[in-house]
Specification:
Helix content is 28%, strand content 18%. By secondary structure, the chain is α/β, with parallel strands linked by helices. It has one domain (11-373): Rossmann fold (3-Layer(aba) Sandwich). The strands form three sheets. The protein has a nine-stranded mixed beta sheet, with helices on both faces. A three-stranded antiparallel beta sheet has the order 12-14-13, with no helix packed on it. Strands 1-8 form a two-stranded parallel sheet. Strand 10 (255-261), helix 7 and strand 11 form a beta-alpha-beta unit. Helix 1 (92-102) crosses helix 9 (330-345) and helix 12 runs antiparallel to helix 13. It is globular and about 65 Å long. Residues 21-449 form the Alpha/beta hydrolase domain.
Length: 460
Amino acid sequence: MAIENTPLSTCNVSTPSTISLPDTETSKPVLLEPYHVDLLPEYGYLSQEFLISGVAHGESFCTRLLLRRPADISKFSGFVVEEPSHLWGGTSIWRHINRWLMRNEFLEGHAWLEVDSQAPSAIGKIKNVDPERYEQMHFIAGPTSDEFAENIPFVTDVSKETLTETYNAFKAKWWPATLQSPEILAAASYALRSGQLGIKADWVVLSGLSQTGGVTRRFITHWSHLRLPDGSYPFEGYIPCQSGGAALPDCASAKIIELLGESEFPSVRLPCGVSGQVDGISHRRPDSDGFRLYEIAGMAHRESRYASAIDLKRWSVADLKGAKWSTFANSFIYHAVFDSMFKWVSGNMLPPASSYIEVIGETDEIKRDDHGNAMGGVRTLHTDAPLSRLVAATPKGRPNWYWGSEWTFTEDKLRSIYGSIESYRLQAGAAISNQVHSGFLLAADAEVLRRETVEMVSFS
């Protein structure tokens, strides 16, 4: 059953002020997620830093905004993905959608805005790193990001119930530490629309992954009464990713797409000793004119197909004992979902119907095929022309559960499944076509999968 919003009187956020923070030889922006920032010039994009200030939760604030947009304003589509930075640092939505955002398939590129609305990371990971550049940043006093990161629950030999209880107690500490965040997020949307940041947005979608997916959900359930200074709604859409909780209500002002990988199911996470925000299958609800839910079979919390040098260093502590890190293309799913949201809010096209992973009865125990892969849900090349058994959450403790792993099939098993390379390629081609036609793979990404995966397979 969906959460029912208790009607609250609408409340206009205060009009924010913004100033530009230029790069100099001696002062550069602090980057929480440097992934693919080096590609900005290649795509004709630039990055701009601002400070935004105003009043939120009855107290003054000043924090950082980081905007990435087409260098040529005439090539801006009017669509912005607004992402709050993670409570203990990072912007995972940027990591998953940056190529889609910038590649200008319709001769117009979208924009992305990092909003450092959560005090613990804004102070702990930005201001404290460069106190001189960010001297003006301030919030209601509270704990720092490191205090949260050091206390993520990690326990073993427990039940799903006790693991969930432990994580819920941890999660309950987020909101008192981020009291000003909702109004700051709305104020940032106003700055985007009013021209304060050098562009004028037509559509702003709030999105986050993991903890910030929870922030996005909480905005829907607790802060949908907020309005911009001119009385208009702050967002046209919401995309909470890899978070979960009780089923979301409809939001009269905006569209909602919720995205959950197999990794978020408690039955999958239990061997890792790390819980999350999903509570059984309570997040499920019927489709509506403004709601979709996509559960992705085989998809991990974070993508390991395209690893950074930082990722590889972190992973080096894990002994996978013959497995390898997952090659599941998370980012291609994100590209398709965000593309669907853009087309939905701009009035051009309805998104695909919701899709659920198959479970046993009313539990979160997942039904699996003969290879051990999840059944149902959004289907992909990885599940419908499999080359491995996918493990959506790697039971190696922190931090490795974030990434999936896979047990590659032997040549003998590949022969027993497909018979020949020609037969494999026929089935793989059909899987890619089905994924495209179902709305979960864009044509540009389909060609990458053909080259990087299908055409690299060989067995005699």
